[in-house]
Amino acid sequence: MSQTKKNFIALTVALATIAFGETAAQAQDCSILGQNTFVQTVLDEYYLWYRELPNQNPALFDSPEAYLEAVRFRPLDDSFSYIAGKAATDAFFS
């Protein structure tokens, strides 16, 4: 991997960490709770209907998809918000 690519990846991780107000350890938490908490953070920060989000504990859900389904604003968000894996996202943008 080139040094430029390594620097770009490091910068991307750093910006994501700053944007979401997380420490590096939190940004790398791949547990179910960590993933659910990441979804909650993104929704609180960027979701169009953030004021409509119910106060649900992310620890009570078995997956980030289940958490998203439980909290998204159904009257207006029936297909706007979704979670996709890296392979599906890469395939979409390729």
Overview of the molecule:
This protein is an all-alpha fold. 55% of the residues lie in helices and 0% in strands. It has helices spanning 3-19, 24-27, 32-46, 64-71, 86-93. Helix 3 runs parallel beside helix 4 (64-71). The longest helix is centred in the first third of the chain and has 17 residues, at 3-19. The model is unreliable at 3-15 (pLDDT under 50).
- What is the helical fraction, as a range of percent? 55-70%
Number of helices: 5
Percentage of residues in strands: under 5%
3D shape? globular
How widely separated are the two ends? 20 Å
What is the makeup of the main sheet?
none
What would you report as the Rg, rounded to the nearest angstrom?
Answer: 15 Å
Overall structural class, as computed from helix and strand content, comes to mainly alpha
Low-confidence segments, given as residue ranges, are: 3-15
Order of helices and strands: HHHHH
- The beta-strand count equals 0
Mean pLDDT figure = 80
Structure characteristics:
single chain; mainly alpha; 94 residues; disordered N terminus
Please render the helix and strand layout as text.
Layout: H1 3-19, H2 24-27, H3 32-46, H4 64-71, H5 86-93
Helix pairs in contact: 3-4
Compact summary:
The protein is an all-alpha fold and 94 residues long. The protein has helices at 3-19, 24-27, 32-46, 64-71, 86-93. It has 5 helices and no strands.
